[in-house]
């Protein structure tokens, strides 16, 4: 019997669940392998809270996958996203085309994703 499914194919729900339920150590490893030089490592290492690091890595990995490996959020997007996720008011001032929309997309995505 022939199967059309590739053994390495995963649906977005499985990928999302894997990322959202991974430990900090696992997320750091996955991100370093997938994102390599694109990962804003200096910003992530500057975060004091493990939960902020986890949220930041979630955002980086999910956006990277949802954009078909085209986009990794930059530091200003992640900083503003964390503030929003942590319940702080946020104003993002950046030029046209700087992807400010991602800041608010993260919040919408994560607020609708079951923990």
The major β-sheet equals:
none
Provide the helix percentage: 55-70%
Tally of alpha and pi helices: 6
Structure classification: mainly alpha
Q: What's the Cα radius of gyration?
A: 15 Å
The geometry reads as globular
Indicate the low-confidence ranges by residue numbers. none
What's the order of the H and E elements?
HHHHHH
Structural commentary:
It is a single chain. This protein has a domain at 39-112. It has six helices and no strands. It is globular. The protein starts with 11 loop residues before the first helix and ends with a helix. Helix 2 packs parallel to helix 4 and helix 5 (75-85) packs across helix 6. The chain is 58% helix and 0% strand. The protein is mainly α.
Question: Topology of this structure?
Answer:
Elements: H1 12-20, H2 24-35, H3 41-46, H4 50-66, H5 75-85, H6 101-112
Write a compact overview of the structure shown.
The protein is mainly α and 115 residues long.
Task: Please give a handful of descriptors for the protein shown.
mainly alpha; 6 helices; 58% helix; globular
